[in-house]
Each structure stands twice: as structure tokens, then as C-alpha cells.
Design brief:
DNA-binding; mainly alpha; 2 domains; homodimer; elongated; Tetracycline Repressor, domain 2
DNA sequence: TCGCCACTTATAACGCGTTACAACTTTCTC
DNA sequence: GAGAAAGTTGTAACGCGTTATAAGTGGCGA
């Protein structure tokens, strides 16, 4: 039984595909997405050709996802649109899922925007960042719902690539700011706290992506969860302020819900 | 190919392994497999034959999922094992995803167990129920990780079928008990609170299913989230008690994490 | 009992993701 | 420039989920 048919020789390309992702034009941030194991000397015409092909494929995939939704992204159609052979996306990325992930990572330039947000109170700050992230996705909902739907449906490695160390560091910084301001109880572990916040964020996103949550409720729902969790970890001094944000989010959510319910009796 | 379309004589060991899970045959209800709500009059031999075929298919699917994981559940193999034609599962269920959902609904008998749990403090009560639910899944992890992985990867209607009104009612009762005991602030909307708890639960399950969270951390992680959120909604009188549960869950989580990290440096 | 009809069956087909492999073309090395 | 190395291309194939269709079968009403 030729069980060696797995033969992940090609998958090697999947490991080093991160190199070209960050090199996307719009990004500008130039962050390294994953491990950069590729030999740094190999800057020849051959490598450039590969990179250009990779870029064409990502570009074509992005366009096709935006135009037709997930169902439109067949590997044969993708290859044709990108002007490459059917085998080439597999050579360069390894699988369809890897291509989708590459598209997602290609457009992640939150960090630049996040840097703009400045706020006195660290709790207000993290909630403002949440708003910003939500705005980002709502800026192109057709694209991102499709993309995230794909992402959720693929194996775990894909999600771990999204929730990467760089991202963790950024958000952990925000939580640590809150702790440093004395707004959290002494015994609270900020890393564990962040994971709870992440769970909240991700699960609400899943609702949105699945169509169970309207765009208007996305931000308020996430912020209510954040406020509740933070309030649960708050010190005595900071609690009242955060509790106020809980009540505020709840009010927003109820109003938006009633408005939506009145508009679409779905 | 079809040389020996054996009818497989439905191995009498049918109820053996599944006994602990699905022992409850949902007798009186008449198996509401889908939203069909089978007309109560149509109890002919023809309908009985259909139901028996349905049962054979679900049973075969359950066995195959347990034995081989998701990859083993191909429609052709399923049809062969169930002793039906390839077209029959499509006639009876409609799609592969619908079969998987039917398997999931077939084994959901939490409620009976939940009724056993009695506890003085309503907060302790809901956390005990969480423990029970986690235990339920951990009782057959190979089966439930596969099943939930499938569920997460299918369209939204599947999840809404899981989070159904009956389930909501049950959990909302638990949350309302907490409110009735005066442990929550006046302004807290229990329905919204429940949704935040659900998000927590579901997202942690997703982690477990994806292999990002070990079995030992599943319960503590969920309970930490629950405790944090409840603490964030707690009234002044109840807060200290709940904050204590936060600290306790956090300690458990840290210890379990360190133990796991020491054992498997993965 | 007979004929209708609902349903299953067998089978072929479609497009899909993925893999394999023999050419062919381009780049690198000497 | 010659030859080696690398990579793409075209194409065939596999198993998959799903659909369509003709032929068969057995329950049910008359």
C-alpha cells in the first residue's frame, strides 16, 4: 500500500510562502507572517518569477472571492484566471486552503491603523481598537464574510496562523496597559484574560460570518463581552467605570436589536 | 462492483458501545429527525421501512466516525455499510452534512443528566452544569471532536439547530436563577448575558475540537470565562464569592497548563 | 387480487480538490 | 556556450459529494 502517497514534498512551499505575503504592495507594514526559513541569498530571477506567480494567484483569488463568493473559487478557474497551470498553485501554496489563508494574510494591515488609536484610559483604548477592527471587516463585508467562512472551515493550523505571536503581543500589550493602570485585581493573569477576550471576539465573528448576527450588532456584541470580562477582572477602583461601559453596551445592543427587529422581521 | 451488495444483517452489537451515550431512545416522541415533524398518522410499513433505513444510516455513520474520523465518512462507504444504495442517504437526509447533524442530534440527551444536578448556590450550579457538559464530551473525545469539527465546518443552519430554543430555555433558566438570587446587578439583561456565556463556551469548544486545547484544559477554561463574565455582571453582595471562583479557575488552569507543558513539550 | 405509485436501486455523469508524471522551458553554474 | 538544476506545463487519474435517470420492488387502496 503506497501510503507514501502523502508525499508532502510540495508542502515545503507552504512553509515559506509567508515571505511573499508580507511583501504585498498595500501592506507596507512588512511584517513577517510566519517562520522565515527560506535562504535569504536566493534572490535570483527564478525566485522573482515565483513571487510574481504567487502574487498573480493571490490577486486572482481575491478578485474571484469578492466577485462570486466562496463557490466561485475553484482551483481550475483560479489557475486559468491567474494564467498558470492547475499544478502551479499546488506547487506554490500546497492546497486550496493555503491559498485562501494567503489571501487573508495578504490584506492584514490592521497594525498600521491600530497605531493611530490613542486614548487616555486603557479600557477605552482597547474598546476603541475593537471598534477599529470591526470597522475594518465591515468595510468590505462580502469579502470578509466569505474569507472568514473559509477560514473557520479549515483545519486548526490555519487559525493558529491568524492568531499569531505578533498579534498576541499587540493585544497583550493593551491588556497589560489596563493592568498597569491598576484597573485589574492583583491576582489576574493577563495572558489568560486575553485568551478569554479572544474567545469572545472569535465566536461573535463566527456568528456574523454565518449570518446569524447583523453587521450593526457585531461591534456592540463584542464590546459587551469585552466589558463584561474586564469588569469581572476589575479592581475595586476601576469597577464602576467599566460597569458603566457594560450598561452602555447593553443599551446599544438592545436598541440596535429592536431597531433591526422592527426593520426586518426575519 | 455491486457483486455482493450484502445487506450486512445489521450487526446485533448495535446498541453496545453507544449505550452510555444514547441509551435514551427518545421513545415516546417518535424521533423528530428533522423539522419534518412526521405526520402522526402515517404509521404504515412503508414509513417504518424508511425510518429503519434512516436509523441504519445514522448508526453506520456514528460507527464510521468513531472508528475512522471524519475522513472515513464517505457517502459511498456509508451507503455500503448501511446496506443501502448511494442515492438513499440523499433521499432521506439530503446531504452529507444533514447526516452528520442527524448523528449529533441523535445523541443529545444532556437534559436528563442535567436534571440530576442540584446545588444550593445558583452560580455553583451553572458551573457544575458546565462541568457536566464537558464531561459528556470528554467521555468520548474521538467521537465528539470529529463530530463538532464537522459541525463547525458546515453552514450556519446547522449551528442554529444545535443552539435551539429548548436548549436556550434550559440555560436561560440557570442564568435567571442567578438573577433571582440577587447575585446580578439590576440593569443586567439575562438573555444578553447568556449569549455572552454561549460565545465563550462555543469558542473554547472550537479550540478543543481543533486540537489547540487539551482535554484537561477544556473545563477550566470554560469555567474561567463563565466566572469572569458572571463576576462582571455581579451585584456588590455576590461579587466576592464569584471573584473567588475566578481566582480558583485561574489557578486550576495555570497548574494544568504547567503540568501539560512539563509532560508534553509540544 | 390487481394495479398504481412511492420509493429504492443501480449506474452514469459532472465538477471538485488533489496527486502523479512526462515533457518542456528557463535559470544558474562552470 | 554546455550542461545541470529547478520549475512550470499539460494531462491523466483518483476519490469525493451530488444529481439525474431508467429499471425494479413492494406496500397500499380498490
Amino acid at each position: 500500500m503506497g501510503e507514501d502517497t502523502v508525499r508532502r514534498a510540495r508542502t515545503g512551499a507552504l512553509a515559506d510562502h509567508g515571505a511573499d505575503l508580507a511583501a504585498e504592495p498595500s501592506a507596507g507594514t512588512g511584517g513577517h507572517t510566519t517562520k522565515e526559513a527560506a535562504p535569504p541569498r536566493a534572490r535570483g530571477r527564478r525566485e522573482a518569477g515565483k513571487e510574481e506567480r504567487r502574487h498573480r494567484i493571490i490577486q486572482a483569488a481575491r478578485e474571484m472571492i469578492r466577485e462570486t463568493g466562496r463557490t466561485g473559487l475553484s482551483m481550475r478557474a483560479l489557475a486559468e484566471r491567474a494564467g498558470v497551470s492547475l499544478a502551479t498553485p499546488y506547487n506554490l501554496f500546497g492546497s486550496r486552503g493555503a491559498v485562501v489563508l494567503a489571501v487573508l494574510e495578504d490584506v492584514r494591515d490592521f497594525q498600521a491603523r491600530f497605531a493611530q488609536v490613542r486614548n487616555g484610559d486603557p479600557v477605552d483604548h482597547i474598546l476603541a481598537v475593537v471598534d477599529l477592527a470591526v470597522e475594518f471587516y465591515l468595510g468590505d463585508p462580502a469579502f470578509y464574510t466569505t474569507l472568514w467562512r473559509e477560514v473557520f472551515s479549515v483545519s486548526g493550523e490555519v487559525r493558529t496562523a491568524i492568531y499569531n505571536p505578533r498579534r498576541d503581543e499587540f493585544w497583550l500589550g493593551l491588556v497589560n496597559d489596563i493592568a498597569a493602570a491598576g484597573a485589574l485585581r492583583e491576582e489576574i493573569d493577563t495572558a489568560l484574560l486575553l485568551r478569554q477576550l479572544d474567545h469572545q471576539f472569535r465566536s461573535v465573528m463566527l456568528d456574523w460570518v454565518a449570518g446569524d448576527l447583523s453587521a450593526g450588532l457585531l461591534g456592540p456584541t463584542i464590546k459587551l463581552g469585552y466589558a463584561l470580562i474586564l469588569c469581572g477582572a476589575a479592581s475595586d477602583e476601576a469597577r464602576e467605570r467599566i460597569a458603566h461601559r457594560v450598561a452602555e453596551s447593553q443599551r446599544l445592543l438592545r436598541e440596535a436589536g429592536e431597531r433591526a427587529a422592527g426593520a426586518t422581521p426575519s
